[in-house]
Amino acid sequence: YLCVGEMLPNATVLLCFLALQLRHCAADLCSWTGSGFAAAVDSRIVLQVRLRCTEGSVRWVYPGQAVRVVLEPNLSSNLRTTVCIKPSPSFRGASVFIERAGELELLVTDGERPRQVFCFRADGPHRPALYLQASPQREGHWSRRTMGFRYELLGNRSAVPDLGHTSCRPCNDTELLMAICNSDFVVRGYIKNVTHSPESQTSLVEVTAVRVYWQRSRVFERQVAPGTSQSISSWHGHIHTLLRCHVRPGDGQFLFTGSEHFGEAWLGCAPRYKDFLSVYQTARAARLNSCDFPSD
């Protein structure tokens, strides 16, 4: 499932290796695991990996030279795609670049504390591609290093945030009306607790929901009555957000919306429910609502 080609020694220059005659792999793979030992034989080797699923993982043991990972699942013909990656905790030995229009943009540097999730738009005619550049090692010395990440590809979803550049300001009326139509989850409930993690620069909002309008996966689950196996009417779940947004517990009902990444909910718009109803009813009366919402 691997192909090889030549590369220039400096990965920060234009991707000149794209002009070379490279053999490409066409493998129905969701995940890839490989090693950099091939680079010890030929320092010009670049492993060419093609992944055909909307989610999976990459694991590179003993990183050496470079790997180019092309993500080309069978999505719709829409050229607008969002790519999200989550670096593994043991991210060592290589840096990750985004390939855009023949240039490389640094995403994660070897040795830095990686963000929990990073999303970016992959627009244009070419499939999203990631370029993994191994860090130099002492000659003749191969240390046990492993770099890896999980990835997700999403279609044209305007509600998907770039988690590295999320705005903490409240959503305006237009953004709120779009959020209830495009979000991965929409729930109504109360903030039970908020915990902050300076290490990961994130906050975790614990939510007791009285109604789950929809959710892409099972982020919110029905609570079980103490001492029994029977579920009760309320739901329970957790929503992630950035620490710099300074989320605090508040009284009253909120309408929580957002996106799901790697089985985790990330906060989008979260107005007080009564404020949302006022915005929605005004828009509906003027026939400006983007979609119907059960406001009972």
TrEMBL record:
The keyword Nucleotide-binding does not apply. Residues 1-27 form the signal peptide. The lineage of its organism: Eukaryota, Metazoa, Chordata, Craniata, Vertebrata. Keywords: Disulfide bond, Secreted, Signal. InterPro entries: Meteorin-like. Its main location: secreted. One of its GO terms (molecular function) is hormone activity. The keyword Signal applies. It is found in: Secreted. This is Meteorin-like protein. Belongs to the meteorin family. It comes from the Eukaryota. GO terms for cellular component: extracellular space.
